[in-house]
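Alginate export domain-containing protein, pasting as requested.
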Amino acid sequence: MARLIGAGALMALACMPLQAADFALTRWSEDHRDLADPVRQATPLDAIKHLALGASPDRYLSLGGQLRLKAVDFDAPLFGLGSNEADRYGYQRVNLHSDWHLGPNWRVFAEVGDAQVHGKRTPPTPADSNRSDLQLAFVDFSAATAGGKLLLRLGRQELAFDSAQRFVALREGPNVRRAYDGVRLGWSAGALDISAFLTEPVEIRDDEAFDDRDSNAIRFSGLRIRHGAGEAVQVDGYWYRYERDEAVFGGVRAEERRNVFGLQSAGRRGAFDWDVEAVYQSGSFGAADVRAWAFGSMLGLRFGAWSWQPRAMLQLDAASGDRQPGDGRLETFNPLFSRGSYFSQSGLTDFSNLLNAGLFLSARPLQPLTLGIGGGRMARQSRDDAAYAQPMLPIPGSRNGERVIGNYLRFNASYRYNRHLTLASELQHYVPASGLRAAGARTADYAELVVKFLF
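Structure tokens follow.
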């Protein structure tokens, strides 16, 4: 009851008109120095966004958080294969953070979170539930040097490099976001941005409160260089090193070591926008050599002269699969820490052994309302490898003679009442191809409704 009363009070505040700066997906990247002026504060909640810690404008505290409620109705998880049955459940996520700016060079950011799943038949996964724990906790040191700005970040942090987040993502779609323990060093000057990191992903344990720890079995490091930071066109080149001590491919368990080389371009010119990324992976899996690749693209065309601001988007994606198991070469692409909602919120598809082509249309019939509809077809890149659901889970019966996985239709709607309160929904209808149906797969319908309140 207390939670419902608190949620009601927050929703009431959300219904007040607001004009201050928006909140970000990465809350640690926000800048609320504008709210130091009481005139800019539209609600009582704005007063906690900038609390002075002395006379210096560089010393202040910013408080914030979020409440997210999500309801899911999924009639055929994993296409109903195996023991998967129709499921209905709810997610609840609460996060509270404090952002301490302790002068021009030092900053401390900490966030605690509590994520719960209610009514789910299958056992919760690390992406479903994590009772009260430390989500983020890092220290920043920044300084002007060599004609640019140097940033050193140490502690539990998020990695987010681009808006598409195909292979290194926050995992915002599921209930528990992804974090890493480690160090990140960045340098930026004008349009150039360089970032290097050495981390271990946080292992979500959920046995008791505050028991998460860095993983001893997975290590993730890399170097990323961007030209065009803050400009209309950006080009990124990167190298990642991914190490997993116990990986499983084709029923074989062994050490996995991958070097990941990628090139990405994103931007907008006139009515056209794009995000294109190509990746190559080399390394080893046990005694086998790794040789894998992937390509992702989103190509958009906006019709700005039309009143509803429509946009058409063509999505083309491909990822390699293993062509001949047991030949001493592993060609299944590993999507690393992929975005849970890149293809859809249902999790029926992961970025491995995949060919995807889709066309989507979106429009804004009202200023706060965005609608989207589209669909496409998915197939396996290699007939000798399985189709994969998230998280890189081989779909039973998918190693069949038919390359096509199935056809899908997706509908999205989002209503942004103001900068605090957003409602969103997604519907997906996925019809598996005859090869999967012969293995027992059935048509999958997925629906979700999300209410998010940020402050």
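Note for the archive: Helices lie at 2-14, 434-438.
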